[in-house]
């Protein structure tokens, strides 16, 4: 076990370092290309095409599992769910590269720290989910940091600010909508990523031709077409590799640990871009960047406390799966890993969302559609209840490993705490 734990920790550290280098390298490379080749939509097209092609073998690996559970995507669902996501991705990726073209890498990443603010707004007005006042107050350092960085940015560009905000808002909106699409379609997230990327390719090609291709001969390039092609190809590969690292770390780390890693990545990207591209910054500008970056970490901590209460620990719960009319009993902890339950038969075969029932509080706690970004779960032991438990209005409690309800009585398997 110690050796296994050491290998797991070493692999996480390696993935984090690789993630930082890929992200920093990709952003610096994109900025260098845009300085010589002022066509950000071309870089966006290269990124989407590379993701589309690279996701094909990964999508095939999960296709068998989807067929096993009879997942189908109708023509109507494709146009009402996949196409809107593709349009959102088109806007988000394109605006991201336009902002990178207009402003320095360091400032663009500082503005992207506004993601939690847009996520809260989308959750409030799109999903109807309210937050506590503490969570709303935790957004102030992020907004303050971005304002300070904007006012002190020596290379400030209003168009760059607006496009960066549009990109960040689009990603927040996509994150809110993609959960509903995954539930309604039953598609695996890798397969869904491929479908979205492939659909986005068809949408972006006409725009790319009329906006960029027809203007290629109007600009005197300072770089050869061969070097440009190699740069675009490398940019797309780095972007896809970064996405793979992101998914891997989300599956391995807790919410808070991933937030820390993400803040560290953002600081790494800003630092490396400042050292390599040498864009001028002031002390106040750096303070604004750091305030926004660490504000994201504080926001994540507040959200964790809102969901779980204090302290974080074990909570005996029941996962009720309405589709099968049965209950599955989990002894699990929050903020550890999300892969186990996400990959389980319950998640794979769901037609209606299961919900997690807090035994101690006698109330539904969280729904599967909030995973993996909001709540992470892992179960070391699981048993199935032969007959359904009464749900919302019944009082349940756990005493000495026994789950008691009016009917039936069941026992949890022995379980142990797992620390990550």
UniProtKB/TrEMBL annotation:
InterPro entries: EmrE-like, Sugar_P_trans_dom, TPT_transporter. SUPFAM superfamilies: Multidrug resistance efflux transporter EmrE. The chain crosses the membrane at residues 39-58, 78-101, 107-127, 134-152, 158-178, 190-211, 223-241, 281-299. Keywords: Membrane, Signal, Transmembrane, Transmembrane helix. It is a multi-pass membrane protein. Residues 1-26 form the signal peptide. It is found in: Membrane. Residues 12-299 form the Sugar phosphate transporter domain. GO terms for cellular component: membrane. The keyword Cell membrane does not apply. This is Sugar phosphate transporter domain-containing protein.
